[in-house]
Amino acid sequence: MVAALLLPLCLLCASCATLNTSEEVARKQELQWPPLPLMPRIQWVKEIRDQGDAGIAKGMWQRFGELFTGEVENRIGKPYGVYFDERGRLFIVDVSYGVVHVMDAKEKSYYAIGDLEKRTFRSPIGVTEDDRENLYITDSGASSIFRYNLKKRKLEPFIISDLARPTGIVFNKSNRLLYITDTTEHQVVVFDLKGNLRYRIGSRGNAPGQFNYPTDIYVDGSGRLYVTDALNSRISTFSVEGTYQKTFGRSGDTAGDLPKPKGVAVDSAGNIYVVDALLDAVQIFDQNGVLLLTFGSNGANPGEFWMPSGIYIDRNDNIYVSDSYNRRVQVFKYLDVKDTSTRGVEPAGNKQTEQ
């Protein structure tokens, strides 16, 4: 009798799952930029609000413990810095909760760096990783950089002087140095992995090579630096040695302008992505600063943003955007027109069930 009742229910659930999957595929095909019939170059993949969205199911003991202690809150509060490493781990800096979410879809594990109650971090912003499995986290409120060893799961202060308000941070593999935007000092400060100050780049102003409250920083495969010069409404590029190269961007409120630029990143083709919090969009430029494409608009639906901030592009051209006030990270895919087989592919190590 029970089996007879369960069979139709299972069939119904199976048909619903098939329908939902079909609807999901159709929705993904619609969320492409530019829209069809033009050749799409950017495709929406998914959103991540918690560990489940990253393909990490709760373990048996975690579920058992929650029966007595209550559900553990693993949802994202206000994401800013985001990073996806070569081992398939996603790191999300959460300004609201003062932690760094670590989501490892391959190992099916989730944990947080930092203690919300003790407020380990005052105001964490940026995150990067070196070539020895060490994370570096900027804490703008504490004027410090923390280092976290991923193997030992050990957090320690790394740089506690020489910085006023560190925000963006990036590790440059070409010379094994850390580059940090010190926003209120209007500089990029460079340290080695022992925490020694090597040199500083820039000063306050609007001349070439100067900054007015820089916020984010990125390094491409050749070691070139890209700095978000926020109140100058531009992106400035520098050589690996810190020599100024060029600048693009201007103030305004239309496509191609940078009224409130935040995160910056570069894909495998050399296209430059700039997150703009005022436009609620991501704008893509070529190496000469010519606008190629814009995706996103204000809202809470897939492909829409509300005050986005950080961005990271992994080696497979998956694009992770911190949609700060929507409390999520949205994942997109750069579609190389020479390889149409990449369309609709989930990020490596991060399928719907699995930068």
TrEMBL record:
**Annotated signal sequence range:** 1-19
Q: Where would you find the membrane-spanning parts of this chain?
A: none
Keywords assigned by UniProt, alphabetized: Repeat, Signal
PROSITE patterns (UniProt xref): NHL
User: What InterPro entries does UniProt report for this protein, alphabetically?
Assistant: 6-blade_b-propeller_TolB-like (IPR011042), NHL_repeat (IPR001258), TRIM-NHL_E3_ligases (IPR050952)
Q: Where are the NHL repeats?
A: 200-241, 245-288, 292-335
Family annotation (SUPFAM superfamilies): NHL repeat
Annotated protein name in UniProt: NHL repeat containing protein
Upper classification of the organism: Bacteria, Pseudomonadati, Thermodesulfobacteriota, Desulfuromonadia, Geobacterales
